[in-house]
């Protein structure tokens, strides 16, 4: 039985312009530069140049809509079907709202350039007529690049040999027949980025049979694998750390001090070695402490990850989004805009728009031109104003962080205070989600180095004097104690907690353990060194 019902529900929706602003706000500097460059390519109504007065291009209603994007929470608390995540996943509509289109644009100056004249400009009649434009005049007028200009050789990325190519090239020096080369290439293609072979040999047998129709045995693969393991870097293709170290020791000259004992330890007492049970190794092999130290130092010089560093990863540069420095007792905050040009609405497009507005002819081609110009100019002005709002919001957030962490920016590490996103949001009167978007993936350059903005946000612990201290500072204290410990008798987590308590910091042993694990520091037993 069908049943109808009437339901009233309040939902929060984002306009395409608000979505554009949110996306721009969360982009770091490099991604933002690429986004601006892409928009300049896609929208001919947007051009580089000194920013002009464009008051009146945004209505009061549109300005309020842009500001409202700063108070949109990360998720729809009412559980509506259309939340922000769904809207962000959808592409932006290309046509702007009809109500927000300007009825007339202010008259612009002539195009920039020496000897600019009316003959050097293109009107909308030429575009509609589809006339062939002279390439030389086109690139001079529209600011494009010369099509005959060669690429800058310094801007090209040099080709480098990959880890796989490095190994395949060495196969030429092995005495392998066609069958052996096929097995070797299959093994190299199965290696993990760190150089280990973690696939079972039976899977390689199946791959060769299904892909090439070649039936091989695991013994054949094992024989080829032994040869690959002795290529450069030695130990590549090992199936375990024990095998990797063993191969590297085997290729060393027999006269190497400590080689024979190191091989015995790796083969027969690897579990004791991994847990650093040196006393058990001394008893098992009946050797002196000096002999064990010699073998241990040799093992430490081996490479546990032969494939690491051999690949060609993409270069990742950290470009700070902000710069903060102290001048005459005051902090100066600057936003990085070095590669982002000033933008404005194209003077030529604005002039063509004015011509179309004055033309009252009822022609389908003219209507099409009006719609095209309307869309491009509207997109350009929204993009420019979104950038303005992005800069303003980012500076507000950075200024609040500097005010709350003033001691850090004056004196450096060791003076960080507990701070959460809510503290900044309340200080600047914005939503927590807005602060989160600004902080995510952004960096600031200070007099003490470059730090991610997330570095300044941390929970706090209370000292015996009632003062709160950032857990980052507590981690630094733990790291400092571990670096200064006696490596023959490392500090346990209980001992570290006792030492911190003497400094007036109330902290439990399990909290020390949690912070130590977050910093990737092993337990005391594994930090022990043989001297």
Question: Would you mind describing this structure in some detail?
Answer:
This protein has 531 residues and is an alpha+beta fold. It folds into three domains: 13-89 and 319-457, no CATH class; 173-300, no CATH class; 461-531, Arc Repressor Mutant, subunit A, CATH 1.10.10.60. Helix content is 48%, strand content 6%. The chain contains 24 helices and eight strands. It has helices at 16-25, 29-42, 60-68, 84-89, 124-129, 135-142, 163-170, 178-189, 201-212, 218-228, 241-250, 259-268, 270-274, 278-285, 289-300, 347-358, 364-404, 406-411, 421-428, 432-439, 471-483, 493-502, 509-518, 524-527, and strands at 46-48, 322-327, 330-335, 343-345, 443-446, 449-452, 460-462, 468-470. A four-stranded mixed beta sheet has the order 3-2-5-6, covered by helices on one side. A two-stranded antiparallel ribbon has the order 1-4. A two-stranded antiparallel sheet has the order 7-8. Strand 5 (443-446) and strand 6 (449-452) form a beta hairpin. Helix 1 (16-25) packs across helix 17. The N and C termini lie far apart (84 Å).
